[in-house]
Amino acid sequence: MIAALTTKWTMYVPILAALVLVLSWGRSVPGLIVALVSVALVGAVLAAVYHAEVVAHRVGEPYGSLVLAVAVTVIEVALIVTMMISGGDKAASLARDTVFAAVMITCNGIFGLVLLIGALRRRVAVFNAEGTGAALATVATLATLSLVLPTFTTSAPGPEFSSAQLAFAAVASLALYGLFVMVQTVRHRDDFLPVEDGGAVDESDTHGHVPSTRIALISLGMLVLALVCVVGLAKVVSPALESAVASAGLPQSAVGVVIAMLVLLPETIAAVNSARRNQVQIGLNLALGSAMASIGLTIPVIAIATIWLSGPLVLGLGATQMVLLALTVVVSTLTVVPGRATLLHGGVHLALFAAFVFLAASP
């Protein structure tokens, strides 16, 4: 299946997308060019999904999910910092909006899709409650420390951290994320492997021929290139998105939601593909791992970036957002505890995701 990788379109699309990115970067692009950039963006997303699955196939789970989650998040962080530098005071809440959107997209949108598809295929979606529960607890803690507490602290005016508080949140986020990665990949790796009817799935049965190291390294390089193109092209089309948002009378935070959706599209497709292969656990690993990486890597980088960034950094969520986050944590906990989910569980998460999108457009 992978032997002819060098002749596949997935080798050429990232290169073409990179060319489009170079030609359009830093320029004001008209409507026709925006359409071309959007086509290149979609192609880069599809190529990224393909190469991520090749790498995941080679390294096995849970490392495969970790590769895609970290790769996407690292480049997403670079996009956030770039937009904050160029956005001035208008971008004060960009990090908060994008990170919160990533959490809601992953913990409700991707989570719900994976459970829905898994339940449609086998009536009940089966996963490992121990590993998924540990991941959910980490996400809830990171989100509370970084996005909820700033609304209630009093050392700085408004929903902001003081310098010392931001430093603590950054160190705590990075430490928690590092601890989770160690648990996921070393000490309790079995808790994050696909399960079926209570037993671990044999990875050799769920995949075809394992790609060689050379093919995996080529795909890793193409994955990084494709993800750079995804985030860069999203940045290129963001002015058009901002204009469309303003024309539609939507709040500025809607821009962060749209950008988060674009950036997380590769992970969404990869998670759905895993669920279609009856590997619900891999899809959940991708969803919660992405939410965790979005917070655990973004907050430390933003904390360092504030050294040279001027203007306020708004991290605290509003009342509506906190209600959605709290409801997400409660519902996710009730979903995860049994280790089995039905169509109803998937539908509830997708309803929460729909509520998030609606309220982001109509607060």
Automatic annotation (TrEMBL):
**Entry's transmembrane regions:** 9-26, 32-51, 63-87, 99-120, 132-152, 164-183, 215-234, 254-272, 284-308, 314-336, 343-361
Domain Sodium/calcium exchanger membrane region per the UniProt entry, residue ranges: 33-185, 219-359
GO molecular function terms listed in the Swiss-Prot or TrEMBL record: potassium:proton antiporter activity; sodium:proton antiporter activity
Keyword Membrane on entry = yes
* Keyword line: Membrane, Transmembrane, Transmembrane helix
Q: Specify where it is mainly localized.
A: membrane
Listed under GO cellular component are:
plasma membrane
**Could you tell me the membrane topology recorded for this protein?**
Multi-pass membrane protein
Where does the protein end up?
Answer: Membrane
Q: Name the PANTHER family on file.
A: SODIUM-POTASSIUM/PROTON ANTIPORTER CHAA (PTHR37958), SODIUM-POTASSIUM_PROTON ANTIPORTER CHAA (PTHR37958:SF1)
Q: What name does this protein carry?
A: Ca2+:H+ antiporter
